[in-house]
């Protein structure tokens, strides 16, 4: 796989080529990644997969017209044809008064922070196979597990580089490792499946195969012979494994492109007290070894830690160049870039700060409620905030977990859910979005 310097050189050459062919401005982003994964099922090797990919994307501007194109052909003649085609496409594109590159004064400058995203530990295929086998074996050893969908282990690395005609040229690399197990418990109509997994930038930061496998087995066995709950309004408690989705909806609604399209339930509510004053939601793109850590965004703007929610209010809108110009905002370092197409918007590492009580204390006064461990369906309206999802989990009776439930629907409105959120104190920081156990009162539950 190419290194950062090679990726930067390719981008620099492509931007210079586009300028020589008539582009007024241009940027290029190169990405390369490689990974190896091993899957073991019932103790036997089932799959070994090795993937490698490299691509480069070019965005050009001719006046207020722009075009984007990407390729995996790095031959000189191929790159020249790419640049020619991009410039010609731009000349025939409609004008966009908001499109353009980040101004030089807005670009990241100085030394790149040491985010410790790269682990040079060499994990041999045999070691991946043994880790996958041990993870599945630990899951299958849990009493009540009857079958397995497999244990997996993977290791990979990636490089990203960005060059703009405004003088920005930076790149960085990172690694990723993961372990997982997915097993089955019960028989016939009582059969249930569940999983456990962990990903990390450094191999040493993973849980052990035994810890992950045991957790997968215990989660699965606990779901056997589910019942239901009575329909009505009641407290719903979200397990940390799935509670991060609530932050994902918030972040999506805070995107400036969605605000510009008037397609966000937060439109016009930036000054409202949407959360309890004790709630604090933080984004930290510079978190050391973070799964989405990045020193700069997809347009070369510096990434900056900030509170997304504080004192009950949201920070504002997360912008890229086009949406910032359209709405008259500053740049926030949230441009997201793939190989082709115009930049979108995304956040990096985010978390809901922990509360003051244990999960047990959080549930202690719930006479009848629902503890959710799984969600399915896409019933979230990002314009109105209406929320309706299928759910599985456990019934709460008199403050205690009373038994598994399935075929449940939970519903509410995200604005009301945010205002009713109460976090527990069990926050763990190992995913890109991390939350503790979350209680939301007053949701509508459809069961029996």
UniProtKB/TrEMBL annotation:
Residues 231-447 form the Metalloprotease TldD/E C-terminal domain. One of its GO terms (cellular component) is cytosol. InterPro entries: Metalloprtase-TldD/E_C (IPR045569), Metalloprtase-TldD/E_cen_dom (IPR045570), Metalloprtase-TldD/E_N (IPR002510), PmbA (IPR047657), TldD/PmbA_N (IPR035068), TldD/PmbA_sf (IPR036059). Residues 26-90 form the Metalloprotease TldD/E N-terminal domain. GO terms for biological process: proteolysis. Pfam families: PmbA_TldD_1st, PmbA_TldD_2nd, PmbA_TldD_3rd. Signal peptide: none annotated. GO terms for molecular function: metallopeptidase activity. Residues 121-223 form the Metalloprotease TldD/E central domain. This is PmbA protein.
């Amino acid at each position: 796989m190419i290194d950062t310097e090679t990726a930067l050189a390719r981008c620099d050459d492509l931007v210079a080529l586009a300028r020589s062919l008539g582009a007024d401005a241009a940027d290029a982003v190169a990405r390369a990644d490689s990974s190896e994964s091993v899957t073991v099922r019932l103790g036997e090797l089932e799959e070994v997969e090795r993937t490698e990919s490299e691509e480069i994307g070019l965005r050009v501007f001719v006046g207020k017209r722009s075009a984007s194109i990407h390729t995996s052909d790095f031959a000189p003649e191929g790159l020249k044809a790419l640049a020619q085609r991009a410039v010609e496409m731009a000349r025939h594109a409609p004008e966009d008064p908001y499109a353009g590159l980040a101004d030089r004064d807005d670009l990241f400058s100085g030394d790149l922070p040491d985010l410790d995203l790269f682990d040079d530990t060499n994990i041999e295929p045999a070691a991946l196979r043994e880790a996958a086998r041990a993870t599945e074996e630990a899951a299958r050893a849990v009493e009540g597990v009857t079958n397995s969908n497999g244990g997996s282990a993977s290791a990979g690395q990636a490089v990203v580089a960005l060059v703009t005609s405004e003088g920005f040229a930076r790149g960085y690399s990172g690694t990723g490792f993961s372990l997982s197990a997915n097993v089955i418990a019960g028989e016939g109509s009582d059969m249930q499946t569940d999983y456990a997994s962990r990903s990390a930038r450094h191999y040493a930061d993973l849980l052990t195969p035994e810890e992950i496998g045991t957790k997968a087995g215990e989660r699965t066995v606990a779901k056997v012979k589910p019942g239901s709950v009575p329909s009505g309004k009641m407290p719903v408690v979200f397990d940390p494994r799935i509670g991060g989705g609530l932050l994902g909806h918030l972040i999506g609604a805070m995107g400036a492109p969605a605000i510009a399209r008037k397609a966000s339930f937060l439109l016009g509510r930036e000054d409202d007290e949407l959360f309890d004053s004790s709630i604090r939601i933080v984004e930290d793109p510079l978190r050391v070894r973070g799964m989405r850590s990045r020193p700069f965004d997809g347009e070369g703007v510096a990434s900056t830690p900030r509170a997304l929610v504080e004192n009950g209010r949201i920070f504002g809108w997360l912008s890229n160049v086009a949406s910032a110009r359209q709405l008259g905002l500053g740049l926030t370092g949230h441009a997201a870039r793939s190989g082709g197409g115009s930049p979108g918007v995304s956040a990096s590492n985010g978390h809901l700060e922990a509360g003051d009580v244990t999960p047990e204390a959080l549930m202690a006064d719930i006479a009848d409620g629902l503890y959710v461990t799984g969600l399915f369906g896409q019933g979230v309206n990002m314009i109105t905030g209406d929320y309706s999802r299928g759910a599985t989990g456990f019934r709460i009776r008199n403050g205690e977990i009373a038994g598994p439930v399935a075929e449940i629907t939970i519903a509410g409105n995200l604005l009301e859910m945010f205002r009713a959120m109460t976090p527990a104190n069990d926050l763990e920081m190992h995913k890109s979005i991390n939350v503790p156990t979350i209680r939301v009162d007053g949701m509508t539950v459809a069961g029996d």
